[in-house]
Amino acid sequence: MTVTTSGPAPSGAARALPDDLSVWPASAALLPDDDLAIGGVPLTALAERFGTPAYVLDEDEVRRRCRAYLGAFPEGEVLYAAKAFLCRAMAHWVREEGLGLDVCSAGELELAVATGFPPDRIVLHGNAKSPEDLKAALRLGVGRIVIDSTSEIARLAAALPPGSRQRVLVRVVPGITAGGHVKIRTGTDDQKFGLSIADGSAQHAVARVLGQPRLELVGLHCHIGSQITTVKPYLAAVRRLVGLLARIREQHGVTLRQLDIGGGHGVAYRPGEPALDIAALGAKVRAELLVSCAAAGLPVPRLTVEPGRAVVGPAGVVVYRVLTVKRTGDLTFVAVDGGMSDNPRPALYGVRYAPRLVGRRSSAAPAPVTVVGRHCEAGDVVAADVRLPGDVRPGDLIAVPVAGAYHLSMASGYNLVGRPPVVAVADGRPRLLVRRESLADIQGRDVGL
Ligand code: LLP
pTM of this prediction? Predict the structure, then answer.
């Protein structure tokens, strides 16, 4: 991580915040007056020009992360998980970098294909694919469809035109507990995704797919959870899946050539938090795959990974403006002009963020505050119990790092405030990618009385 400090040297105890930019994009650079530049563009200038709240996306950081994945999985395939964040530019960047795409709706699929993403490099997921999802997938010629339930096997086969064949993977549940929060753990049988190996549903689905001449079973898939910070659960998943590959060959005489182990690679949201080491993941998974396949006498299948958060999360920053500061007993609430409608993650998963004041040099000592949003409920918290300069006041700008994944993609219309814009930064230039949702947009959809 290169951090250039172009402002005056910190003045010891008077300095309000440590200059730890470890969870910010690599381009983050401190400027005079404690402004912060991302991709060479000062956040104060971005706030001035595009308003607040605004998401800022560092294009080079996204591209660098894509390349790191290709380096870590040189013989494998890397699909960017579009659910983390998708817009036309994002689809364009990941395609240029050589990644494929994982989508889970007709909406994500259509957007990607409309920007020129080759459909054969796209994989469609979904525990409950709608008829529209499947229709779009077949019309656009999506590369692979991941079977997530027994009932969709016949449904998909029936939807295929005579004479055509669709490549599919079967998503299995390997029985592994991993993931940063119970709501994002998908490796065990007590959740809705995939087909259980333990109760035989996975084996049953494989037999059914093999019995459908219009479906070509190319491999197995699993996704054990999200925000996973150690390699170990992935190795366990590889062992279980290779075990199943061996049983499939025994029972059906079929050797499957693809193993997709999903995504879920954890990132640090605050300095000092662990992140999954992608290079180590690549090396160790590959080694495990070689050993397990050799033991089972199987050829080594092509490995696929589907990172979302680790590609785009740390490349994003959100900038808010402080609207009010309220002191209540021992607590100080710093309320900003966004909140749970642009980032539901603290409310959903209890995630902790590390906001910082930008654009004003303060000599006030850091004080504990809770940064809250503007929405009408008490759970609308941006960052609980963090330290900001004690003189934080209305009009200040607050920036929150690691806002690139699952922020805009999970943003809502709560209180009709409108979703923030996305501005890309690269080489000192800002570029509007997604405009702010206006009141006219919101009112335009309301067509009845
Ligand atoms: N592949 C599949 C099949 C998935 O379901 C997911 C995420 C991914 C890949 C990418 O996972 P990632 O690398 O981004 O962790 N909204 C939650 C995360 C939900 C993840 C859902 N599936 C959050 O904000 O933490």
Answer: 0.95
